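tool_call: predict_structure(chain=1)
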Amino acid sequence: MKHELQIQFPQEIKSVYYQKDNEKPANSKTNLYIEFNSPLSKTILLDKVHFDKQSVQIEEINSSKFVAHFKNNNIISDLILDADAEKEYGNKAPVIKKTDFDLKSDEAILEYRENDKIHYFKITDLIEKNQTLIK
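tool_result:
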C-alpha cells in the first residue's frame, strides 16, 4: 500500500529525537520524543509512529510533548547447533517483519489525524540523545 506523505506538518515541531534505554537488557526499549513549540492543536490527533520496523501508539506527556515506546528486538534466543539435524528440531525460525514504509535508520513516519482524515508525515535526520544528558 502506498501512503501519501505530507511535505509539511500543520504545526511547528520543536524537536524529534530518540533515546535507548538499556538499563535492563531483557526489557530494553527505545523512546522516541516529539516536542512542539506550542500546545498541539485540538484538531490534530497523533496516532502512531513508524520507526525501526515497528509501529506503536503515541502517548501524551503534556500538551506539547509526546513519546512512543519501542521494544528493542535484540533478544537472541538460544539455538541448538549440532551435526545431527534431529537435535536442532526445537529451533525457531527468525521472524522477519515487513512494514508499510521503507525507512532508513534515522527516519520515522508520524501518523496523525486532522479533521478525522489520516495523514502521514516523514521525519528525517532523527538524532539519538544520550540517556544521561536528559533529565
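agent: DSSP finds no helices and ten strands in the chain. Proceeding to next step.
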